[in-house]
Design goal:
By secondary structure, the chain is of the alpha/beta class. The chain contains eight helices and seven strands.
Length: 244
Amino acid sequence: MPSTPACLIIGAGDGVGAALARAFAREGLAVCVTRRPRHMDKLEALAESIRATGGVAHAYGVDARNEDEMIALVDRIETEVGPIEVVVFNIGANVRFPVLETTAQVYSKVWEMAALAGFFSGREAARVMVPRGRGTILFTGATASTRGAAGFSAFAGAKAALRQLAQSLAREIGPDGIHVAHVVIDGMIDGTFARSIVSDIQPLLDGDDILKPDEIAKNYVWLHNQQRSAWTFEMDLRPFKETW
């Protein structure tokens, strides 16, 4: 049976997700990264870049909103890679719609991406971790997890639901030795989206005015390595100039 401890990252995009994969690979975990199947080329490129630096990485095209796919994914990793020690749920689902333009389809899709998929990820992680009495489950939150802004009714509702899910899981399976934590990322993050709306992002990076994915990832690794007598449930990360 495979014995290399694994880290499963649900939603390994080009920014935070990729940084998380690199960071946990440096910790010696076999990193298993997922995105929807249409992004497999980018996902394979990420996995290959980690392997090129000596890490272990596997790429899986999965729709995290699909219960059967999530069950099969966890079973496959446990069988082919090793015991899952860390699960990071990192799907963003950030959309802006005025409430009068928010259809049932929009609201449902955002909720499925940010809340239902989070539930499947947390439940399946618990299924394999609880019997072993160890493991870490980390959920990526956002400003909308705690504060609903105008134009973000769907996103705020979904992210708030994810936060409450994380709280419930922490209270239920924390005593079984499973560290559940929720990370509120409050501010603009350097990445493809930020660079598409900011013509010259370099001054923001030089001034530490924007969240840097690699710095975010260091905090996730720190959460995983916390000793259980002093676990953190919720951490918020923001640039030093961010208004909050």
